[in-house]
User: Fold these one by one.
Assistant:
Number 1:
Amino acid sequence: MTDRLGRADLHIHSLASDGVDGIATILDHVERNTTLDVIAITDHERIDAAVAARTMARELGHRAEVIVGEEVSTLGGHLLALFVEERIRPLRSLRATILEVHEQGGLAIPAHPLVPYPLCAQGFVLRRLLADPDPRVHPDAIEAFNPTMLGRPWHGRVNRFATDHGLPTVGNSDSHEAAAIGTGWTSFPGRTAANLRAAIEAGRTHHHGSFHGTGGQFTTFGRQLRKYSRDARAVVGGRIRGDRTGRDLGYPGGRHRPPRFDEAWRAGRPPADVADQGRADTAERAQAGAGAENRDR
């Protein structure tokens, strides 16, 4: 093993929220196509897919550790809650949300900050929190690199803010499809999730990445629209049939209502929905690629 720094992507969405790929597809992509040592699944307002991903990665013996996370919608902007074991309640003040993350023993990192948009924490809000005498409401780091259209124009401003306020920085992909994972990433001493946490707390992380092209993001948006259409049909169909199923949340047992991690997976018998989803994801990506080639001709 070389002495290279560890690599982490701490902002990844799955089918359980507004991502377009299931957990099996995400884990396979990370294992085969990246050099990441740690990832965090951070779906909006839920952690069930992240918990399933952690179990699956461990049992498959994957290189990358999975951190359970959540992207929480607060009244002061989106917040990454990392190393949590229970869902963080949304739609409260940023201060109260950070406090709850810390009460769980987690880390709180504002996502795509300073962008003049309601989903992003603003500078005056963050300065007020950093000046608060209660250290439990201070953010632990700031997402200084986010390769999306939200992050690109404000990258320099976020870096200056981090430097001025002595905040550790992380880089993340904010990926909504597997292919984008690792386009933004964090380097840290060590290789494990525990090493990463210690590095964030000690201010020994660095951010890296490359910005997305606009065309690629529109392709992802198209896949999201098709996902929402499938979700709506699945929800309506489950209600009509009365079979206690719903939209696919992207992990074994994710179609059950209420959703639950399917124990059959542990015995090496992946339910059909996992294989079906993997084939559907592959087919959709191939179709999108073919469409892009035709447009380029």
Number 2:
Amino acid sequence: MKNRFPVTRTTHPKEKPQDENNLGFAKVFTDHMFVMDYDEGQGWHDGRVVPYEPLQIDPASCVLHYAQMMFEGMKAYRRPDGVLQIFRPDMNIKRMARTAERMCIPELPGDILIDGIEAVLREDADWMPKAPGTSMYIRPFIFADEVSFSALWANHYRFIILLAPTGAYYGSFTGKLSASRIYVQDKYIRAARGGTGFAKVGGNYGGAMRAARDAAEYHCKDVLWLDAAEHKYVEEIGTSNAFFRINDEVYTASLDSGTILPGITRDSVIRLLKSWNIPVHEGKLEFAKVLEAAKDGSLQEIFASGTAAVISPIGSLTFEGVDYQVADGEAGPLATKLYTNLYGMQTGTVEDTMGWTYPFDIVVK
């Protein structure tokens, strides 16, 4: 049985974006949001859809001082028949549970996540963009708003879902993947064993911004992170999981270390590659071997995977002031095939043979 939530409609609707071909990534938010509270002893309660508005939060709330929070990233897509659907929400539910446990945040039941998304999406369905390459970005997040300076887990939390009509993560949608230039970071680290690398928490991203600024100074889109212990093995690319195609085999970092975010797109990529009988190795890959492969021509492709961009091809690596081109510097055939299949499933233009899509009873003509 679905959860039913009360709705308070806005009395001041916003102007919707006029140019859907230049939405950018999550720059404009819809008229409503979903909100729910948690109190120790009462659990999650009072879910509701309300107008999107600034939050009232006490300046002594512990999230502002000790960063006890978590978030997820999802998208809703419009199929050719107008039905709205999301992609592999069961994986988001599992990842939220792992993050909540790591951050001492009470677990949110999966049905509340799905029903909350549906409730606010239904109210703001007329915000759903229709231009090619667009979608509705969904940002569920939980934060501790208890007033306390004690460095302990809180007893009160808020859960919120925001919606944002969005375009391509990197620039405008052209129907063709473009390759990015990536800076190899060997000074700062993203995550260490025993830390929060596997969890979806704000601190992981805030701590990465210094490295991202270094990358920008070299005119690079993002950062290739190396491992924290030895700065020897490749880990992630920016906020995405990294894949390397060498001699027709694909390599990606293992989740075993706890430093890698278990991406939903990452898992989808691995499962598709295996279904296509392409060898996939999850484990340690030395960056030195990547450079060697780039030099001898056996490095065929590098690409990143994530909810925001789906598949992001990498055209070159910048390391110690030297550029190393990946193959011909363009999007490779495997990255393109993966993008075509994943984005096609998500938007309903490619048959979902994996059972990954989750349609709602919401139609946008």
Number 3:
Amino acid sequence: MMSKLGAWGRRLFLLVWVVFALLPAYWALSTSFKRQVDIYNGPKMIPFVDFTPTLDAWQRLWVASQSDFLPKLLNSFVFSAVSSLIAVVLGAFAAYGLARFEYRYGAYRNDDISFLIVSQRIMPPIVSVLALYVVYVQLRALDTAWGMILAFTSMNLPIAVYLLRSFFAAIPEELEQAAALDGYPAVLRLVRVVFPLAAPGLASAFMLSFFFAWNDFLFALMLTFNKAQTLPLYISSLSAQSQPEWALIAAVGMIALIPPVVVTLVLDRYMSKQVLVGGVR
């Protein structure tokens, strides 16, 4: 009897938590179908009961997308995806080196080097973005696609290195030695043995990098003007008006949720992958 009560209690708790977690998303979705007067006349949450839904915001968003919205959405996705891929590839080789070889640079060892790398993310971004702006002026990289990809890559590379090192360290070296006996060169041992076993770590590093780049506001604000602007800046421009159009902002916010959700669903099967080889799970 007590076990059944405990099971129902856990289910009730999970149900309350799911409702609590999804309430902001539901609020934004319902707001995107409201008129301006409905938004300012108190909380109205139930369509056809509290308010009459309208597609005005979505229609206006489609019209606005001809010049503003779609290019910025595409910029955000391309910059985030490409920079995350580069960060994971470069970070994987750096993390593998830190996991497999011993380095000594004066008093610094592998652990010190790893902490030094991740410490670049501990530093507030505003400290580096000012110097980065001066460098970008000299390189003529302001408001360019490759400039934003480079900035996002430099931002996410330390995270990828620090995260992937533990995954590579958990893979037995005997597997690589066995592959070497089978005639695999060093690069093929990484591609066909090490990287597949580290797939959950690679997927996690890519997902984190994508999220950080997708949500970035500071780099996009300082390093872009028009052509390379991203979605967070577009949303900020909508809320900076004298009378913010909350329905339009909510519609853009709902669309902005889609790429991270899709990336999570695609990579989830790799992150939950369990590999049993030589006693390593």
Number 4:
Amino acid sequence: MNEKTVNTNAPVNVGAISGEDALGQDTRAKERAEKLDEENESFGSFLWFLLKLALAVLIFRSFIFSPFSIPSESMLPRLWNGDYLLASKWSYGISKHSLPFSVPIIPGRIFASEPKRGDVVIFKHPVDGTDYIKRAIALPGDTVAMRGGQLILNGVPVPKKRIADFVIPVSSNTVCVKGSVREQTADGAFTCRYARFRETLPSGISYDVLDFGASLADDYGPKTVPDGRVFVMGDNRDNSLDSRFPAEPNGGVGLVPQDNLVGKASVVMFSTDGGSAWAKPWTWFSSARWNRIFGGI
């Protein structure tokens, strides 16, 4: 009787997978899929967070507060070139000018209200659309004039009292213009000295102005402000292109339409003398005017 022998040296089929190995691979594949789903969900959540953050910032800047910078010396002595301030956007109503790039999706001005005489207002230039900042002096129905540098409102001279000179350090953001006195301090630094006056409107609101002496815009009007307009002036009276000048690109603003109002200047958040450089981080601190930060307007 022949016996069958089993060849114990036969090659093993390495391609065969046991049930246990298959189960392990299925588990690992499932884990990888779950991990990928979690990563996609996390990325989607992050994008949704960024979208909500951008929307919140847009709403805040458009309707609550928005930052602005002072690029000139037309509002000296209160606001200096290099000041960064916050403006309340709701003060005079909401319009297309409340939105970035003045996107025209808001008709007219919602919740509109007039500024008060003496408010420091931010508005869009009637011709070129750039942001300007001046002080509201006269409202619809008011008659405004100037004689020899004296402001006259509704036929009555606005009280103007000489007070202590205004002195400001010379810097990259500040130069001594005609009408000022350039002086050198004991430590070798230079300053500009200006004649300063305190004006008081009929409402009792007071503010300081600078006067260089006789100038072209010292005589104006009388002019009655029509409906829907506001007459504005810079506090630096002889260095300001304001409502005394016709509205022209990069020039005067004329009688500003109230629909162009953007907000009311509220507080100075930061100020720099212009001496900083991005490549030199230490200058970010040395050029800061720390005593002006959080100053009211």
